[in-house]
Amino acid sequence: MPTDDDPSSGCGCGCAAPARGAVPSRPLLPVRAAPTRGSHPIAQVSVPAGTFVMGDASGDRNPLDGEVPRHAVELAAFEIDATTVTVAAFARFVEETGYRTEAEVFGSSAVFHLLVAAADDEVSAPLGGTPWWRAVRGADWSHPGGRLSSVDGLDDHPVVHVSWNDAQAYCAWAGRRLPTEAEWEYAARGGLEGATYPWGDAAVDDGGWRANIWQGDFPNVNTAEDGWVATAPVRSFTPNGYGLWQPVGNVWEWCADWFSADTYRRSPREDPRGPERGSARVLRGGSYLCHASYCNRYRNAARSSNTPDSSMGNAGFRTVGAR
Description:
The chain has helices at 87-97, 102-106, 164-174, 181-189, and strands at 44-47, 50-54, 71-75, 78-81, 108-112, 133-137, 176-177, 216-217, 221-222, 252-258, 281-284, 304-306, 315-316, 320-321. The protein is α+β, with helices and mostly antiparallel strands and 323 residues long.
């Protein structure tokens, strides 16, 4: 049986898409690397140097995800994107480089069943243990639901259907890098030591919605009480204490590290960068498909993973300044 440390199972929650190997597809042309240096248009926020305690303090942890033991981490100051990379920013990258994402190369990507916009013969049967996901031919960053969809009007939404490898290509073009898992969690906490969420410990719907997650009966009815069925604009809700918008909810965010469920048991105190090797990369923050009833990973400490070539309609990325 797959575990949460097995990339074939995604993160072990319904919010996570199956890994690329579980998605029927066929390779088309090689991924085209970004040959030029571009301009990164996403606003930056400064995160001060400091020490924080990494890991879950809420008791809501998922046992197989490796959210404990809690441990002190020291980090140097760094700059991180205030928001996830937007559709508009990624479109500029593609226009300037001719880059083709892995969703385009393989010819398909994972789409949540209620968001499919494609002909019937372009949609796979339900996938494995997550029947709400479909492999959709023609789904990619500019066609998030399939060939019958587009990103018109979504310039300020997070780009999705980008793999870890695609995010790396963008970073190479922009002179950026993906955050380490420790940097991501430190920044997401916004200076609140031990808090469950970027805003503190209050419930996500306490006094009004604080993040873009699922409301209703998953996976068939989303009442969209927070205003969004799928992605929300990147500057929705309220930024945290460091100025990061939506580090939890909206879209999963790729981190630099390889994933292992026992990383924290051997992690160094200063600037940890994860295992030296692995089969899946870390994802953080949860997405618009998370719900407390089955996937409570819209928390600062929550962890997930998928293979570096996997892409899905609820994962994007933000970047940090190059070392």
